[in-house]
Design brief:
Deoxyribonuclease I, Chain A; six-stranded mixed β-sheet; 12 strands; 31% strand; globular
Length: 266
């Protein structure tokens, strides 16, 4: 049995003290062996802070390449683990400065590959994200065929896109297998109503209207846990879905997380 989780924790440090406590509380309840974090804030050291408070001693961080037009904070992705890394590698996704990462761990004498990524952002379907997914699949295909593979993250693609259909041709979605469907949505949570400037919200609203031909506020599923053929799903659920006790708009992040209990197929 192996327990895994994924969550985009949002690099924005606004309300971080409250959000960090909510993240720690929710992830502690999950008690995962391996966690994939997206949007760790490099200057804020948010990945290491979460790992320390969860007593997860093994951390593999990857910082995104800083693009000239990106005026925001440096951020990246991280894998947290209760087990030492046998190997760790990263993959240049060749657009938007993004990378993917994987580690190999051994639990009860069984090796596992755990891959984490945060992929090309653009509403709707786009070829650049498809190219990243092809790079990801080809990269993981280089591993020994007998290895169980778990690949998690913020894929920035909804279930109806060709990009997710492509991933489904190589992997199984843990949530869809266990629940017979993907979540109604994983993003955004009500936290999105508190963060960001008015101009940014208006710009995103225009992009949403053009892409989805809908004036309603967008929400959808962007986060997944994918598995290869060696694994079965014993449980899978959304996590980090509750707000702060004293403010219904402050959530752990602008994404919900996903956690799964997995086992080797007999």
């Amino acid at each position: 049995m192996i327990k895994v989780a994924t969550i985009n924790i949002l690099f924005d440090m606004q309300m971080w003290d409250i959000r960090e406590n909510l993240l720690i509380e929710g992830l502690r309840k999950t008690n995962a062996d391996l966690i994939g974090l997206q949007e760790i804030n490099i200057q804020g050291n948010t990945g290491d802070r979460i790992a320390e408070k969860l007593d997860m001693p093994y951390v593999y961080k990857v910082k995104y390449q800083k693009l000239p037009f990106n005026k925001g904070p440096e951020y990246g992705i991280a894998i947290l683990s209760r087990y030492p890394f046998i190997q760790q590698k990263e993959l240049d996704l060749q657009s938007q400065g993004r990378l993917a990462q994987y580690v190999q761990v051994e639990i009860n004498h069984q090796p596992f590959i755990f891959c984490n990524g945060h992929y090309y952002w653009q509403p709707g379907s786009c070829q650049a994200r498809m190219e990243q997914f092809k790079l990801l699949v080809n990269w993981l295909d280089e591993l020994p065929k007998e290895l169980p593979i778990i690949t998690v993250g913020d894929f920035n693609a909804t279930p109806d896109t060709p990009e997710v259909e492509f991933l489904r041709s190589h992997f199984t979605s843990a949530y869809a297998q266990y629940c017979d469907r993907e979540p109604e949505y994983t993003c955004p949570t009500p936290l999105a109503q508190l963060k960001g400037s008015v101009s940014k919200k208006i710009a995103l609203g225009i992009i949403n209207a053009i892409t989805h031909r809908n004036l309603k506020s967008w929400r959808g599923t962007l986060d997944y846990i994918f598995l290869n053929q060696h694994l079965q799903v014993n449980n899978c659920q959304l996590i980090l879905t509750e707000p702060a006790a004293d403010n219904q708009y402050i959530y752990p992040s602008d994404h919900f997380g996903i956690a799964a209990e997995l086992a080797m197929k007999q």
